[in-house]
Amino acid sequence: MKFYHRKIDFKKTKKGIYLLPNTLTLCGMFCGFFAILSAINGNFVYAAWAIILANIFDGLDGWIARLTNTSTRFGIELDSLSDLVAFGVAPSILIYKWSLIPFGRVGWAVAFLFVACGALRLARFNVQTGTTTSKAFKGMPIPAAATVIASIVIFYYEFNTEIPDKNIIFPIITTVLSLLMVSTLRFHGIKEINFSERKPFWFLVVFVLILFVLLIHPSTAIFVFAMIYLFGGIIENIYLFIKNKRSNQDTINDQNLTKEEKQQ
């Protein structure tokens, strides 16, 4: 009896990872971990600034990966895990320890809602990556939602030294941010700006002014920019909703007129 052995060629895959972008991603995750520890220990300002710093690393890792053409599936998955820690778990623990504890079950439920919606937001983003031509985000990005929470904490301690009293506004804000993340509303991001193209001169002037304000009073500037992004996005979507509704109504009216003309 003869046995015939068939050669099987396995496709060689490249092993290893790109060090620079993944290291920056891990730096962002470390900032999120530090924010969690700081919030648990009652150092709320340190926790909030760690979340802001995580935003910088989150922007740098993606930018460098695209610039050096080192974007991989491994990097995308690691980035999502880092985002969940730094912008999902960290801000939820921060807002819970800072202002939601007095609300009891409602407080921890609201904090969990933020984590859950953040995870759903990241999962939806990963699924939709490469399937849409629009550069705008569908739903509020989780780093932006985390920045809003962090900016509120930082701005609060500019005028106060004690933990805030029981205030219904904090669970409301956290719930609104959670729902915005899983909504279909349109929000903008830096990736919409193509830095390789020529820009008008005023674009550079605006950038310098933003940098100037950040250097003069960073805590207030971050809070103001976060509120502008939040309410600006809501106002823009309300405007788009009204505009689309009018456009659809005009289309229906035109169709009705066409039908009447045909009947005549």
Could you characterize what this model shows?
Helix 4 packs parallel to helix 6 and helix 7 packs across helix 8. The radius of gyration is 24 Å and the shape is globular. The chain has one domain: CDP-alcohol phosphotransferase transmembrane (TM) domain (Four Helix Bundle (Hemerythrin (Met), subunit A), Up-down Bundle), CATH 1.20.120.1760. With 264 residues, the chain is mainly alpha-helical. The protein has eight helices and two strands, in the order ααααβααβαα. The termini are far apart. A two-stranded antiparallel ribbon has the order 1-2. 71% of the residues lie in helices and 2% in strands.
Provide the descriptors you would attach to this structure in a database record:
mainly alpha, Four Helix Bundle (Hemerythrin (Met), subunit A), two-stranded antiparallel ribbon, 2 strands, 2% strand, disordered N terminus
CATH architecture grouping: Up-down Bundle
Number of strands: 2
Main sheet properties:
2 strands, antiparallel
Task: Provide the CATH superfamily.
Answer: CDP-alcohol phosphotransferase transmembrane (TM) domain
What is the CATH third-level topology name? Four Helix Bundle (Hemerythrin (Met), subunit A)
Classify the helix fraction into a percent range: over 70%
Total number of helical segments? Answer: 8
How much strand content do the residues show? under 5%
- Mean of the pLDDT scores? 84
CATH class bucket: Mainly Alpha
Spatial order of the strands in the main sheet?
A: 1-2
- General shape: globular
Q: Return the string of H and E elements.
A: HHHHEHHEHH
